[in-house]
Write a structure and sequence with these properties.
This protein folds into two domains: 11-184, Rossmann fold (3-Layer(aba) Sandwich), CATH 3.40.50; 189-389, Dehydroquinate synthase-like - alpha domain (Dehydroquinate synthase-like, alpha domain), CATH 1.20.1090.10. It starts with 10 loop residues before the first strand and ends with a helix. It has 14 helices and eight strands. The chain is an alpha/beta fold and 391 residues long.
């Protein structure tokens, strides 16, 4: 049994209808709550108005920040400057991964005097964060990033000198994670597919990571099982089915726990390098790269010898996602690739070229791409093959 350590977990409240308990959970924090939300869906459903009225009846004032895209330093700094002197007692984020990351970053920065970019890892002159934050509650409305249980918030600035990196500290794990599958039944097919593939990527990459443990392996395998039985249904004829949505929400929750404790692979390495240069939604990038990245990882592992532990893990994942036992490791790996290729074709994930990535960009991207947690070390030729195959 290898030695390992684990990050803390939030107080997790999971289940259909659990959103109705939110006002009671918030009542213990204080009279000033900052809500970070998306721009439209929560209002159209009537849930934001209901929550606000319930809190107001309890003497709690609800302030608000709207998020329309992936968080930038400017968005975080603007929200922090607006509310730093307002005596915010807790921050709640209700939305997709971008909303949760924004809320997490605002929570982490309200008690700091420096702008958020001074604390983002991998930046020049980065400062260590002291871990002080305003209490944070995460309520996901999509099933993807697992940000409701992770210790980092991804911040990006897209452009020539852009970046996509994390604000990270063990203390940034949310205090409460409330996961209600009913909030996800109206998510459109395209977002369901892309966010779901993010969760699948995280489960698979954490499972084959060299830093995986028996604990993370158990969660990753369980997550892949729930994901496999309901992913295509929620993208097709069971979009409004709360039970099917619960399967994917649970898989996403487990993906967040596993990534926080085992790390992620080359797809998320590309998410940092490509995502800083081109305006590509994170889930879409994962969806379009996972198949080719998996094929390249398997190819390089096989070149090292058939006894590689990560190959056996890929084979086991192939059995779970395909629902078929494999006679040997090679067959299990082939089953995995076949399932991923089938999803890619059926759901029509867009290529990188649709977002402006061209052949001339590949050298710059590969030079910036790193992934210490990938299943196998990949050279520039491997990175180039993955990108070229998805232009």
């Amino acid at each position: 049994m290898p030695s390992f350590s684990l990050l803390p977990l939030p107080s997790i409240h999971f289940g259909s209808g659990s959103f109705s308990t939110l006002s009671g959970l918030l009542s213990g924090f204080g009279p000033n709550i900052l809500a970070v939300t998306g721009s439209h869906a929560l209002d159209r459903s009537g849930r934001y108005g209901s929550l606000s009225a319930s809190l107001e009846n309890s003497g709690i004032r609800l302030h608000r920040v709207l998020v329309g895209k992936e968080p930038s330093p400017e968005l975080v700094n603007s929200a922090v400057n607006r509310f730093r002197e307002s005596g915010i007692d807790a921050v709640i984020a209700i939305g997709g991964g971008s909303v949760l990351d924004t809320g997490k970053a605002v929570s982490a920065m309200l008690l700091q005097d420096q702008p958020v970019e001074r604390f983002i890892e991998g930046r020049d002159g980065v400062l260590p964060h002291d871990g002080r934050k305003v209490p944070f509650i995460a309520v996901p409305t999509t099933s993807g990033t697992g940000s409701e249980v992770t210790n980092n918030a991804v911040i990006s600035r897209v452009g020539k000198n852009g970046f996509k990196r994390s604000l990270r500290h063990p203390a940034f794990v949310p205090d409460i994670a409330l996961v209600d599958p009913d909030l996800m039944t109206s998510v459109p097919r395209e977002l369901t597919a892309s966010s779901g593939m993010d969760a699948c990527t995280q489960l698979l990459e954490a499972y084959v990571s060299p830093f995986a443990t028996p604990f993370t392996d158990a969660l990753a395998l369980d997550g892949l099982g729930f994901f496999s039985r309901s992913f295509i249904p929620v993208c097709t004829d069971r979009q409004g089915d709360s039970a099917a949505r619960a399967d994917i929400a649970y898989a996403a929750l487990l993906s967040g726990i596993t990534l926080a404790n085992a790390g992620l692979g080359i797809v998320h390495g590309f998410a940092s390098s490509v995502g800083g240069c081109f305006d590509i939604p994170h889930g879409t990038l994962c969806a379009t790269l996972l198949t080719e990245a998996t094929k390249e990882n398997i190819r390089q592992l096989e070149a090292l010898g058939a006894d590689q532990p990560a190959l056996r893990k890929y084979a086991r994942a192939g059995e779970i996602l395909s629902g078929k036992n494999a006679p040997d490791v090679a067959s299990g790996c082939a089953q995995l690739v076949a399932v991923l290729e089938g999803w890619q074709e059926f759901l029509g994930f867009p290529g990188l070229g649709e977002f402006g990535v061209s052949e001339s960009d590949i050298g710059k991207i590969t030079a910036m791409t790193r992934s210490k947690s990938n299943a196998v070390k990949l050279g520039d030729d491997s990175l180039r093959r993955i990108l070229e195959s998805r232009l």
